[in-house]
């Protein structure tokens, strides 16, 4: 019988991950969190509460991050089976954060045989704090905060006020309320959740347009990771993206290509041996798709050289190209993926046979952080490459607020679960910041997202195509855009303060 609670904790963790994309069974997630919190509350000791919470976290993150294994299928220097070890190994670490939340809820919130309102509030506050820590410790791993389950519901709109982590706390509070011994409260929560299932989330606004309204054209070439090493891949990919860029019209067009899909160097000034073709001719080919008022944002690689003239590292970059073939701006990805774009502790891990998942022997260099590029005719545009978009409160240069965010990505590594989860998190960022987001990926899901997080248009996975629509308008800066993740701290203080007030009142 002692094993039953542990097995229930594992079951709760397994099912809690089903609320994320692609399944989006968010009521299951809330029920699973309620079961976990019940197991925490009825734990006889703090050690038991911590153990059950850790088991819950291991199962939760193993299922939620299963897509990571797929990346190892394309790495010939490490066996694909190592991907399963990586998923579980990461989950063993990430489970520390639910363990801490469960321990805080038990230690500070438990005071009777049945959960009460103070337990509910403290559990919510504990989850906010530990989820935020998960996003910043050791460079952070912010993938799939619980708030993402609200993306398909009207509650997504609350992100503009609360931000992600406080919205995650709301999910935990809603789950914990189901444990209260008061039937009216439980019934009220169930009715409210049932209504959320019936009412669709806010849809994208209809975009007014004329023949001269600036438009965006999002490119998805559909070149899967399996063909990266095939003969002529780089040139065929370039040709396909030029083909999909279309022809100029009366309206100015912002053409956006995916992350890292120009595999020839675009910048002048490198030693001649680094060029497979002339960068000037390459830029001219891209510019040939542009009309006089157009511009292109393309993903490629920048090189950095040391004093000895040798390459020291590289930049995962976006280049802004004008019709006259000039590069008028470059953004270098700042929040790099450990083990993907650089190998941490290289002197230790490389001799053990470990390498980066991204091909090549040169580590990427982090850029300075969120930046805004001013594009003539299109205004200020913020850049966040791939993984960077998942970090709440870290995606905008607040001193130079952009009118939209461009999020080129390469999700071809990440199977069936990774791309829709990535898209859902980008939609949550749009709602938080009140900014439209453009996503261009090699294999999907490419999309145009409006400033409420609604989908204007998208290209399904594994299809080549292009989206061309009027550029969505930004909203005025949201409360979260002004305050940032201080909202998470405010939510923690409010929840703990309410819990203390309730306890004093009921003494």
Commentary on this structure:
This protein has helices at residues 3-16, 26-41, 46-64, 68-71, 82-94, 96-109, 117-136, 159-177, 183-198, 233-244, 279-287, 346-349, 418-433, 479-483, 486-506, and strands at residues 215-220, 253-256, 295-305, 311-321, 327-332, 371-375, 379-383, 404-408, 437-440, 446-449, 455-459, 465-470. It is α/β, with parallel strands linked by helices. The strands form two sheets. A six-stranded mixed sheet has the order 5-4-3-2-1-12. Strands 6-7-8-9-10-11 form a six-stranded mixed sheet, with helices on one face. α11 links the parallel β2 (253-256) and β3. The longest helix has 21 residues, at 486-506.
Q: How are the SSEs placed, and which strands pair?
A:
Elements (H helix, E strand, L loop, with lengths): L2 H14 L9 H16 L4 H19 L3 H4 L10 H13 L1 H14 L7 H20 L22 H19 L5 H16 L16 E6 L12 H12 L8 E4 L22 H9 L7 E11 L5 E11 L5 E6 L13 H4 L21 E5 L3 E5 L20 E5 L9 H16 L3 E4 L5 E4 L5 E5 L5 E6 L8 H5 L2 H21 L1
Parallel strand pairs: 1-2, 2-3, 7-8, 8-9
Antiparallel strand pairs: 1-12, 3-4, 4-5, 6-7, 9-10, 10-11
Helix pairs in contact: 1-2, 1-3, 2-3, 2-8, 3-5, 3-6, 6-7, 7-8, 7-15, 8-13, 8-15
